[in-house]
Amino acid sequence: MLLVLRFLMQISSKEVFFLISLITVIFLIAPLFLIVYVNLYNRRKKKHDEETESLKRSFENELLKSQMEVQEQTLKTVAYDLHDNIGQLLGLTIITLSSINMNDPAKAMEKIAAAEDLAKRSVKEIRALSRLLDGEELISRGLIGAIAFELDWMEKSQLYKISYHSSLNKLPPKADKETIIFRLFQETLHNIIRHAKALEIIINLEFINDTLTLSIADDGIGFDFTEIKKRHKGLGLQNIQKRVAMIGGTVSFDTAPGTGTRITITIPY
To answer: 40, 94, 238, 243 - which has most CB atoms within 10 Å?
Structure first.
């Protein structure tokens, strides 16, 4: 205290007045700065909460859209299979039964056995279709099983040589991500069927260091990626990029006219 008094005695009255004024201003401004800081913090927090809620709603909408598209694609698969596969089996069954000659018991028994086999195959295919009708049931197989199941149906067309490589037996349960990834897989296959004019399709599925990598390649006509993005058709590629980004992943397109296409999707788990 004595030191403070000696210090004040050594300075002029003007300097004392300046120090008192400075201290008063500091004490007045400090609360104002605190109020401004708290106000800015609350605004930023509110904006962050609104952005988080908006992202959550967008993800939920995208997930619902993907689920509906999986079901729509499934119904198309069912329609094609009813027409091309089961319809053909039942047609052959009718032809076989109608050609039976009861005057030749030996051949009649052979044709009856063949018709019975065709009928059993038809029943088996119909049961598989009934399970396929439920898109959630398909996803409940897990991403690995759902992809394999989808490829089984595609191979029945005998239009493509399909190679599926995966060392995975199980993935960490991420149902939301799996639905969107599976829809991306369906969409890529659909694009190959519509545009690629391919004969061979190669699928690789890997899970390394908590990262899932799905690669889909074809030997089709390929395309100019930059040119396609400029056109309206580029919306399909943008949709793939948007969905991959929504689940925190990345996608790359390796293609050129006449060289086929490879799409690689990488998703952190």
So the answer is: 243
Asked if residue 176 has pLDDT above 90, the reply is no
For the record, the structure tokens of 264 come out as 């690689």
| Residue 139 CA, distance from chain mean position | 12
Nearest alpha carbon to residue 150 among 54, 57, 80, 229: 80
pLDDT in tens, 88-106: 778 778 888 888 888 888 8
**pLDDT class for 126, splitting at 50, 70, 90?**
confident
Cβ distance 208 to 228 under 8 Å? no
Same domain for 127 and 192, yes or no, is no
Q: How many other C-beta atoms are found inside a 10 Å radius of the C-beta of residue 126?
A: 14
SS3 category, 22: helix
Residue 9: inside a domain, yes or no?
A: no
Q: How many Å separate Cα 95 from the centre of its chain? A: 44
Enclosing domain of residue 172: 142-269
Where is average pLDDT lowest: 1-5, 39-43, 67-71? 1-5
Q: 91: helix, coil or strand?
A: helix
Q: How many other CB atoms are found less than 10 A from the CB of residue 1? A: 5
Q: Which residue among 80, 113, 140 closes a domain? A: 140
167: phi then psi, degrees, rounded to nearest 5 = -95, 5
Give Rg (Cα) of the chain.
34
Q: Which of 224, 161, 182, 179 is nearest to 63 (CA)?
A: 179
In sequence order, the 6+-apart residues with CB closer than 8 A to the CB of 74 are 132, 133, 135, 138
CA 137 to chain centroid, in Å, comes to: 17
